[in-house]
Amino acid sequence: MSNLSYPALKCILEHVDVQKRLYIAARSRDLKNVEKAVTLRSKRLILRNRYISLNNFTVEIESESDKIKFVKTARIVCERVVPKEIAEGNRRGVAVKKKIGKVNQYYFGGRSSIIADQLQIDGTIRELNLPENFNLKVNELNCHELNFQQFFSFGRIESSNITSQNEKFISKQVCSIVENFKQNENLPSMTVRFSKAKAMMIANPLSDLKTEFQQYVSQLEGVDELFIPGSLRYCIFLENNTKIMIFGVRVQFGSRDFFELVVKVITDTTRE
User: Fold this and answer.
1) Which residues contact 170 (CB under 8 A, 6 or more apart)?
2) What is the pLDDT of residue 4?
3) How far is CA 50 from CA 47, 53, 239, 266, 268, in A?
4) Is the sign of the CA dihedral 208, 209, 212, 217 positive or negative?
5) CATH code of the domain made up of 162-272
6) Which residue pairs, CB below 8 angstroms and at least 24 apart, start in 136-144?
7) Judging by beta carbons within 10 Å of its beta carbon (0-12, 13-18, 19+), is residue 29 exposed, middle or buried?
8) What SS3 class is residue 86?
9) DSSP string, 49-70
10) How far apart are CA 39 and CA 249, in angstroms?
């Protein structure tokens, strides 16, 4: 590889399996710097408080030893001694959370970007040991509850499905979404769906949000969806030409009906 040009090396690294790429790059400081400049792509990314998983591959640190484990589908494929850059975080008596944070920073921090087809978040953002400069782009997000105000500090979403039992949580998070697009231009479009078991649990957030953004609200037109009968549906037009459609729909899953509050954002950068 030493005879390869910089552009050629970047091209090769982008198509190397995630497991091999992280393991090989970590053995050379120069190669690691090149590798982190190349977008890391993953079909499925899982964020947990003890590790980050890409395509069922994780890098984990043993709490009582100086070893880092490379795990693929619950099977240890190899181990290595903790690199000098993070050895300090593995001293006896140091909190496990700090050790995990150092490992995540070493392998996943400071990257140009990480692109995931699907993101799963287990736990809250505050519980995660995310590295600094964690630049994440997600096509689809699945989680129970998510603080969008915290998530927008490091990630971008194109589509997400969120199950929440709290109506006030829905209103608060939609407000965070609207405020994020009010304050930032050149953001990609996104769609967020909040799932509920009963239609009446969608009605209150729809009403609260219409009142909150009354000065921006206009009639929703040109949308063909299975709307919840009698429910509110409207558009929010922001000054930066961003259009945010908010409405409730009925979704059939097997023999049961579920209901969703849909927030569909169309930005000026993606509008035809």
Assistant:
1) 164, 194, 205, 261
2) 79
3) 8, 10, 42, 35, 39
4) negative
5) 3.30.2030
6) 136/45, 137/113, 138/45, 139/115, 142/118, 143/119
7) exposed
8) helix
9) SS-EEETTEEEEE-TTSSEEEE
10) 36
Predicted model pTM: 0.73
pLDDT at 28 over 90: no
d(CA 225, CA 191): 14
**In the chain, at which residue ranges do the beta strands (DSSP E only) sit?**
40-47, 52-54, 57-61, 67-72, 75-81, 114-121, 136-143, 155-157, 159-163, 190-196, 217-219, 233-237, 243-253, 256-266
210-262 confidence digits (pLDDT tens): 999 999 999 998 899 999 999 999 999 998 889 999 999 999 878 888 899 99
Residue 263 has pLDDT above 90, yes or no: yes
Q: How far apart are CA 201 and CA 214, in angstroms?
A: 21
Q: What is the pLDDT of residues 46-77, one digit of tens each?
A: 988 888 999 999 988 876 667 888 899 888 88
Residues 78 and 72: their CA atoms lie apart, in Å, by 9
Residue type, 256: R
Q: 18-25 and 29-36 are packed helices; what angle lies between their axes, rounded to 10 degrees? A: 140
The overall average pLDDT reported for the chain is: 84
Tokens of 151: 């998530």
Domain ranges of the chain: 162-272
Residue whose token pair is 């799963």: 120
Spatial contact of 203 and 227, defined as CB atoms under 8 Å apart: no
> Hey, is 73 helix, strand or coil?
coil
Token pair for 219 = 């009639």
What's at 192, amino acid-wise?
A: V
